[in-house]
Design brief:
CATH topology of the largest domain: Ribosomal Protein S5, domain 2
Number of helices: 10
CATH class of the largest domain: Alpha Beta
Shape: globular
Order of helices and strands: EEEHEHHHEEEHHHHHEEHEE
Helix content: 25-40%
Radius of gyration: 19 Å
Number of domains: 2
CATH architecture of the largest domain: 2-Layer Sandwich
Structural class: alpha+beta
Distance between the termini: 6 Å
Largest sheet: 7 strands, mixed
Length: about 300
């Protein structure tokens, strides 16, 4: 059996829309069992709704991998253990793609490098800000130019943790994308360019006091707020409780804050603000992880 473990990711980080993402210590496992007959076992998140046939994203990814390398897909079955909420903005689809590629690559004798696998993952996902930190770990800046993906892994502050707020409702990524405008003002573009640059500067120089400003955004969060009206009040509660910065994770619905210390005060602030605003959900403290997806061959 080949086992891949892939971390959840939080993308955008406020101003870094579609280019910044980081890995956190919440994992999905993809176990590929060589040989037939084909079957898929799913445990955890999505077990009641995810397809168990070849339409499953992991299975489709494995088949696509073998198409890319010019080989016939060998018989296999899958055992999926999902701990990441499917529609929370925490990169669950990226874990399926990355996990499928890593297990297929090992089954095939590793014909592709990790960089080649990342480029293939990007081509399948369409956006690099989740697949890059899922594959590489840590905090990753991803930029696509002329169809070529470039990534830079930034230092992850050792004394910083994350606090997630996971609402009891979900937001469709498609619906969240639909809310975005076709054009934005010059002023809003400048606002985000400066803050995304400030985020990178703050992380690389240790100026964590700048993250409150660096995580502000005008390109996507204001337009998606209609799908989560209480979001600004939860942001304010987290910042007042000592969060370094806070943002809508990916397309949502999860919120993510960075903290120094144990994070309990910010988690409690999230929960109190959610209750006061009639939002079901829970907060949890998570660690940022510098190691990306892993893959090993293990006995059943």
């Amino acid at each position: 059996m080949i086992l891949a473990r892939v971390p959840a990711t939080s993308a955008n980080l406020g101003a870094g829309f579609d280019c910044l993402g980081l890995a956190i210590d919440l994992y999905n496992d993809v176990a590929l069992i060589p040989g037939g007959p084909f079957r898929i076992e799913i445990v955890g998140e999505g077990a009641d709704i995810l397809p168990r046939d070849r339409a499953n994203l992991v299975a489709r990814t494995i088949s696509r991998f073998f198409e890319v390398i010019g080989r016939t897909t060998p018989p296999f079955s899958l055992r999926l253990t999902n701990r990441i909420p499917m529609t929370g903005g925490l990169g669950s689809s990226s874990t399926a793609i990355v996990g499928g590629l890593l297990t297929a690559n090992l089954l095939a004798g590793e014909p592709l490098s990790r960089d080649e696998l990342l480029r293939l993952a990007y081509s399948l996902e369409g956006h690099p800000d989740n697949v890059a930190p899922a594959m590489l770990g840590g905090l990753v800046l991803s930029v696509v130019g002329d169809g070529v993906l470039s990534t830079v892994k930034l230092p992850t502050p050792r004394d910083v943790r994350g606090v997630l707020f996971l609402p009891g409702f979900t937001i469709s990524t498609r619906e969240a994308r639909r809310r975005l405008p076709a054009k934005v003002s010059f002023q809003d573009a400048v606002f985000n360019v400066g803050r995304s640059a400030l985020f990178v500067a703050a992380i690389t120089t240790g100026r964590l006091d700048l993250l409150r400003t660096a995580t502000q955004d005008r390109l996507h969060q204001p337009y998606r707020q209609v799908l989560f009206p209480a979001m600004p009040r939860l942001f304010e509660a987290a910042l007042n409780a000592g969060a370094l910065g806070v943002w809508l994770s990916g397309a949502g619905s999860a919120l993510m804050a960075l903290v120094q210390g144990d994070g309990d005060a910010v988690a409690s602030a999230f929960n109190r603000a959610a209750e006061a605003n009639g939002v079901a959900g829970r907060a949890r403290v998570v660690d940022l992880v510098d190691e990306g997806a892993t893959v090993v061959e293990v006995s059943d």
